[in-house]
Amino acid sequence: MDKDRIKGAAEQAKGALKEATGKALGDAKLVADGKADKAKGIIQNAVGSARDTLKG
């Protein structure tokens, strides 16, 4: 498993936590930050997946 996949999964989890906290507190900026972190994690995970595929 590529390290980007691990980092991507962690980033997605961090984003989900931020988003949930932001919704609970009514903090729109925290919700937006969480969504951005989740998107970053999804992209990073996809990069790691592509690298795994190339490795064979």
Which key features would you list for this structure?
56 residues, mainly alpha, 2 helices, 91% helix
Rg result: 13 Å
Topology pattern, helix = H, strand = E: HH
Give the DSSP E fraction (strand runs of 2 or more residues).
Answer: under 5%
Shape: rod-shaped
Number of domains: 1
Cα end-to-end separation: 11 Å
The overall average pLDDT, rounded, is 95
Put simply, the count of helices is 2
Brief description of this entry?
The N and C termini lie close together (11 Å).
Could you characterize the architecture of this molecule?
With 56 residues, this protein is mainly alpha-helical. It has one domain (3-55). Helices cover 91% and strands 0% of the residues. The longest helix has 28 residues, at 28-55. The protein is rod-shaped, with a radius of gyration of 13 Å. The model has no long low-confidence stretch (mean pLDDT 95).
